């Protein structure tokens, strides 16, 4: 009888142990480990900074990406998703990849590794006013600047995209676009002599058009930065006057990197900065933060 009790007690302990672990697993307390030993619950996106490889200025995009992939434990996760998200060429020396903290610690032992940070979501913010910047056609910066209202300047706007029919983006009076400029425009309403580039970077769907019909924030900040002169502007019959951006004759190059569903992921932001530098913009406008 004593042996039966002992065996029954052991049976209860085993059942309790299995039940408790199943409870922890379901509620996300225990890590889920893949076939390769990856802690799936800890996989996140990291931005990894590395030393520039020798001769990197002469490497094409594919060779540079292969160099960056050499830091990874393997090129795909068990789900089949690629680890590498972006291989940066201009903005930083490094890449963005899906990794666990343990894999990052192993990477720290590799020659050429500098540091890695988890990708973060930035939040939209706003800009200052013309009065604060002392902009005026009579006595302010506009009247004393060597550049006539920013003519010839290309401003790269990283935001939620742009709504082309907005009157601030009319190209009346704009100078000819820069010679040799051939960056792409993926808007349904074509670019013009004011908005000369419109592209989109979205990890989930790279073909998302860079229009701004969902939020309007990118249109707002692009207009603040470089909106053309708009006569008889008003808001609900108030503040009637002539509206303009900070440099109304500058060109606008749009890069949609902020989305309602995912916010503004720093991996995509860096990819946009990288592309804008390659395109040849002079100034970057980014109105988001932590």
TrEMBL record:
Entry keywords, A to Z: Hydrolase, Membrane, Protease, Serine protease, Signal, Transmembrane, Transmembrane helix
Domain Peptidase S8/S53 positions: 150-289
Keyword Secreted among record annotations: no
GO MF term (any one): serine-type endopeptidase activity
GO biological process entries: proteolysis
Record SUPFAM superfamilies: Subtilisin-like (SSF52743)
UniProt-listed InterPro entries: Peptidase_S8/S53_dom, Peptidase_S8/S53_dom_sf, Peptidase_S8_Asp-AS, Peptidase_S8_subtilisin-rel, S8pro/Inhibitor_I9, S8pro/Inhibitor_I9_sf, SBT
Keyword Secreted listed: no
Matches recorded under Gene3D superfamilies: Peptidase S8 propeptide/proteinase inhibitor I9, Peptidase S8/S53 domain
Transmembrane segments: 7-30
Domain Inhibitor I9: 45-125
Family stated for the protein in its record: Belongs to the peptidase S8 family.
Identification of the protein by name: Subtilisin-like protease 4
Gene of this entry: LOC120258903
């Amino acid at each position: 009888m004593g042996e039966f009790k002992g065996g029954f007690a052991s049976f209860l302990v085993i059942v309790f142990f299995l039940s408790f672990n199943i409870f922890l697993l379901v509620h996300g307390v225990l890590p889920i480990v893949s076939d390769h030993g990856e802690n799936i619950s800890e996989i996140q996106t990291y931005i990894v900074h590395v030393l520039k490889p020798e001769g990197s200025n002469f490497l094409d995009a594919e060779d540079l990406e292969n160099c960056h992939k050499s830091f990874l434990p393997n090129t795909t996760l068990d789900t089949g998703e690629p680890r590498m998200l972006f291989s940066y060429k201009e903005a930083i020396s490094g890449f963005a990849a899906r990794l666990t903290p343990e894999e990052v610690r192993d990477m720290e032992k590799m020659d050429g590794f500098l540091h890695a940070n988890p990708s973060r979501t930035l939040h939209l913010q706003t800009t200052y006013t013309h009065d604060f910047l002392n902009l005026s056609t009579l006595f302010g910066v506009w009247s004393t600047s060597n550049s006539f209202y920013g003519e010839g300047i290309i401003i790269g706007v990283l935001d939620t995209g742009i709504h082309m029919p907005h009157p601030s983006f009319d190209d009346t009076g704009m100078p000819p676009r820069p010679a040799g400029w051939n960056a792409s425009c993926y808007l349904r309403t074509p670019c013009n002599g004011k908005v000369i580039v419109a592209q989109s970077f979205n990890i989930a769907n790279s073909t998302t058009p860079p229009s701004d019909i969902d939020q309007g924030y990118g249109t707002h900040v692009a207009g603040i930065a470089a909106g053309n002169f708009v006569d008889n502007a008003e808001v609900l019959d108030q503040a009637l006057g002539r509206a303009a951006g900070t440099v109304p004759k500058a060109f606008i190059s749009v890069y949609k990197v902020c989305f309602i569903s995912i916010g503004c992921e720093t991996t995509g932001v860096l990819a946009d900065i990288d592309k804008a530098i390659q395109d040849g913009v002079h100034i970057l406008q980014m109105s988001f933060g932590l």
